[in-house]
Amino acid sequence: MSKLTTFVGVLASGAALSLGAPGCDKSPPYQPPRATQVEGGLHAPPPGAKAAFYKFGPPDSKITFAAAKVTKKHDGSFGAFDGTVGLVNGDPLMSAVQVNIDLATLTTDSEKLSGHLKGADFFDVAKFPKATFSSSSIRPGSTPSTYNVTGKLNLHGVTKPLTFPARITVSADGVSAEGDLTLNRKDYGIVYPGMPDDLIGDDVSIKLLIRAMPAKAEPAKAEGSSAPDARSAD
Is 29 helix (H, G, I), strand (E, B) or coil? Predict the structure, then answer.
């Protein structure tokens, strides 16, 4: 089964795009919304609906994170990831997003820390080289262009459903989205405590900045075959 056909299958189930927060006021004291481990409803596309596909990745898009121990806060990012947005009739409520992150490409403000995070105490990239997110639904937020995105995150060998807020804009040039969320690393089996006199916090703040551009056209199919629509899958 091709990745495209699998992704169209996600769309067929009414999967959702979005990475945008419902009316978050970032005036102090601001805390990124915590991702909740719940699943929402679906908005199925109408029969025969066609999906337009968009691709995103560095350098136009960014996935960054921040975590802290008692004595210091550290910032980091991922240098390699790729994602696909399937937008049905230009409506995020009937669309989907998938993201694959190469965890070995993480960097932080400390070279020593970057190496430690890749090891068995944290991400263990030799055993778990990828993190993935696949949306399953989206619901409207409290203000225009804001949404609540629901999907499943696979990290460190653990898959959990989560919902987080996001802002999304669709234009003729592509899809732009922004989101802030907070994960508890221990929910994904990353439990290294740190030094006894310098314990590491459980929460990790994640910031998403997505700029998705129209995907290149698929090669023409042989005569007699039909292109998949948003409700077809193998």
Answer: coil
